[in-house]
Request: fold
Amino acid sequence: MINGYWVILRSELFSLFISPATYVSTFYFLALLGVGFRFFIESFIGTNWILPPLSSLAVGLIFGSPALIPFLTMRTLAEERRLGTLETLMSAPIEGSSIIIGKWSASYLFFLIICCGAYAYPLLLWILFPEQAQTLGFNHIEHWIGGFIFLMSFGASFTAIGIFASSVTRNQMVAGMLTFSLITLYLAIMAFSYGEPHQVASNNAYDQFLSSIGGSLNKGLDKLQFFAVGIIHIPTILHQFIVVFLFLTLATLQIERMRH
Reply:
């Protein structure tokens, strides 16, 4: 399983790094994100933003994911199914889970590389204008670490959703639109729940259990207040691992059907 995983991972990473569409989408995404970050920093004094300024970058990356993730995942399985190469791959002595996890890992790693590119903006500001950067709180390393871990957890679930969407169709454009729709729906649920007080109306243990396991699945944006100041909220990370496991399992089951 491990050997098959590494083969798939290397192949998918190579495919992403030589794809022109990946570079074009990454360039425009980072360019727009950089422009937005600049205007936010310039107008920060006049805003009602209560979190550290650096957290705005995490928000931009999260809400920009529906436009970025499809370009990283839509070709992974859909294009191979269309070309017939996935059937050939499935005939090799490689487990379906190795194929799915390998393709997901490649997309996820590329997403993290893009996040590192985005964090180059505040780093450059810190280098060129150290006094202004210190005023904005860029000298607090815990803000950098917390925000990046928040992106890591949600980036993992978003790319898993993209892999699942690519597994259910032969058309990469359909896979891209399905990924966009599912991630947008997920963000919409969190956005509508943002800021609402968390109350358990009943003392029933079952109701409390359901409320506790929901957590960041609908209150994910509220949890940013912890990560933004360097407090790692473990339940949020665990909830995103559940989402990753769910969608990767569904994708594995989908391609395992091709063996039978």
